[in-house]
Amino acid sequence: MHEMSIALAVVGQVEEAAERAGDVTAVRSVRLQVGELAGVVPDALSFCFELACAGTVLAGAELVTEAVPGRARCAPCAHEWLVGMPPLLSCPRCGAGTTDLLAGRELQIVSVHWEDGPAHAATREPIPEER
Predict the structure, then answer these.
(1) Shared-domain flag, residues 14 and 78
(2) How much is the pLDDT for 23?
(3) DSSP readout, 1-40?
């Protein structure tokens, strides 16, 4: 279950940001964008996140996931469409198979809410993919 490694990476990044901030005593929520093509099961991620937070400054924090639909653009005709699941990667307009995936693979922390202060935007760096 790679959701556990993702949850551990999120917790680690938020802990590092909390340490750098210096005055954080608790994290209340973490907002995460999850692309529909990222191969992540949101319910499994939420379960793993709760386990990964135990004993950390994130204990009891809420994980809020925002689904990002997959979008593609046809290279020859520039038509854009939602790829859906299972993904439709050939152009529905002209049938070409040369497409650029524009969105849907995101897996990034969008924001973190500290208990002792206002919401702080986290770095918009993607979480390293498991290889």
Answers:
(1) no
(2) 86
(3) -HHHHHHHHHHHHHHHHHHHHS----EEEEEEEEETTS--
